[in-house]
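Assess this one:

_____
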Amino acid sequence: MRKALCCLICMLIAAAPCFADASQDAQISGLLRETQMKYDELIRQADAVMKEPITFPEPPSTCVSCADAGKAETDSHSLNDFQETFSAPEGPLCTQMLEMQRKLQLLGSYPGYEKEAALMGRLAQKALTLITDYGRDFEKVPAIALVATKTATDIQLLGLDEDDRSTALMDAVSAMYEKAIEEMFRRLVEEHDYAMVQPILDGARASLLLSGASGVDLEEILSRLQNSLCFELTINYNFEQTGNHRWVERAVLEVTAVYEGNGNGRFSGGGTGSMLSFVWDGDLNISVTAPDFPVQAVLENFDPCGAGVDLLLTPFHPLSETAQIDGEALDWPLLRLSWETAFAQNMREDGLYRFPLTLHNLDGTAVSETIEYIVPSNEVKMEISLVHKPK
């Protein structure tokens, strides 16, 4: 009896794994059927979507010039809302289907991705239609580019792109940027919107990155920017002493933005300054002569949206001044002394003088400012004008 009982126990122990395997297989089969049913329902929804006409919202306009923090935040919300609305219903449905696909694969089933690819193709068609209908409005370009590039990337990640829709979409976005850049250049040149510089550079880089076969010529863009950002800088320096003794100096320089390969611009120019006139209103017979002098100017921190620019200037006075007093000549460097006294606080360690100025965006006269230094017996007025003269 004991021997029979032991045999029975051994048989049960040996059969236990078989019962466990059967139970596990049944569990997996149940999960597979349940997951397949959910996926089949998603397929039915996808088929219904594919029969509907393609619709999409109008892309929002965003500020590509000067936007304050409030406007930037509003634009960010608008872009997020637009992306969500644009992708519905295809995008969320495709995401759900891919999640079911992942579960099916874990359970040992490997269905195809034809439905998902069809949904993404429909999104690609949406994006291409957006580019056709709204791509000429450069204020809508950021919104269109956002959804179009995401769609192209998602198609590439899916891996089923036999028609090369992602490349076609990227090329279309690149071409859209090229057209937008032309409009930005028009705004820069004709409307003096100096804030267009950074969007032009951003658009050029985006066009290059998105298109494998075309895209803009960045060197040409930088050359056009240099020609579009030419200014005439005029400096009038007036020095007057008590008794109506007056000196007038002037320099007119061409200041140009020089762009190098990294796209960072630097405004600079050079030329010659001259003493235009000297008047001594007194009993003595005095005349003053001075040679022309070199002038170098640099514009830094050119900020159209912040309405500011810094002018760096070499000492604005002749290297020598000679007075003829009743027939006798003597060194008489009053212009140098007036400059060094008036603008001692503006002098930097490198010998240049820094002058913070107000920059007027959307105005052909970008700077029009007078800097004064007035003390008893002496008065200095420096008039600075920066006029936009694109080539």
Summary: The longest strand covers residues 245-259.
